[in-house]
């Protein structure tokens, strides 16, 4: 999963990618956090990947139609975010409530990430 996330980030500098790609990257980082919460229990890793997932979900709402200029994806066309541009935010907010994340629920960083998503109308 991490290798795929790194590939996304190399091909799309500054997260200049489609709504769908941001959704895939968001899911990848949430999956890494989930694996770590279930198996490794390294809080710093979980926090890092959740922060990144939230970042991708928030950025997805502002995707505007344009053409990519990075050499790896030069000329690819990006569409506007869909009319329901808060879908990824809602999905991630629901996924943060999964049982495997219970032990982090009262941590300041977790509360902060959840409130960041909840503050989006």
Description:
The chain is mainly α and 121 residues long. Helix content is 58%, strand content 3%. The protein contains five helices and two strands. A two-stranded antiparallel sheet has the order 1-2. Helix 1 packs antiparallel against helix 2, helix 2 (19-40) runs antiparallel to helix 3 (43-60) and helix 3 (43-60) packs parallel to helix 5 (108-118). The chain starts with a helix and ends with a helix. The mean pLDDT is 93.
What are the low-pLDDT stretches, counting only 5+ consecutive residues below 50?
Answer: none
Helical residue percent? Answer: 55-70%
Which whole number gives the mean pLDDT? Answer: 93
Helix count, DSSP H or I runs of 4 or more residues: 5
Structural class, judged by helices and strands? Answer: mainly alpha
Number of beta strands? 2
Distance between the termini: 31 Å
Name the helix and strand elements from N-terminus to C-terminus, one letter apiece. Answer: HHHEEHH
- Characterize the main sheet: 2 strands, antiparallel
Radius of gyration: 15 Å
Q: What is the 3D shape?
A: globular
Major beta sheet, strand line-up: 1-2
Percentage of residues in strands? under 5%
């Amino acid at each position: 999963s991490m290798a795929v996330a790194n590939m996304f980030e190399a091909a799309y500098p500054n997260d200049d990618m489609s709504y769908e790609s941001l959704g895939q990257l968001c899911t990848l980082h949430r999956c890494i956090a989930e694996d770590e919460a279930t198996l490794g229990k390294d809080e710093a890793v979980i926090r890092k990947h959740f922060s990144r997932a939230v970042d991708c979900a928030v950025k997805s709402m502002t995707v505007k139609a344009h053409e990519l200029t990075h050499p790896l994806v030069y000329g690819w066309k990006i569409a506007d975010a869909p009319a329901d541009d808060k879908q990824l935010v809602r999905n991630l907010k629901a996924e943060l409530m999964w049982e495997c994340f219970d032990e982090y629920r009262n941590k300041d960083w977790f509360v902060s990430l959840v409130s960041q998503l909840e503050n989006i109308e």
